[in-house]
Amino acid sequence: MPKARKKGSPDELKGWEEIAAFLGQPVSVAQRWAESGMPIEKRGRFVYSSREQLNRWLGRESAGEPVHIATKDANLSLELKRGLSYIRKQGGTGATKKKAA
Q1: Which among 22, 7, 26, 27 has a CA at the least distance from the CA of 73?
Q2: Terminal CA-to-CA distance of the chain, rounded, Å?
């Protein structure tokens, strides 16, 4: 009789391929990031993480700048507005204006 598999939460990512796909990076980059502190959990022969944990970690690693991984269900317009609002609060767009001579 086969073992009943415990279904993970919809937020859970199983394996390097799913984690890397969520991050939009190759598997080798995800593995390197895990060595430098990206939150993963090893269970048996698989690694697991969650979208929420990875988004929080990316936010910390980005020196406080807002970071969000786009998914199929993400409202990209809302995320763009949030990013632009952050830039305005930080004092500009980074572009410099030239003074007239």
Answers
A1: 22
A2: 84
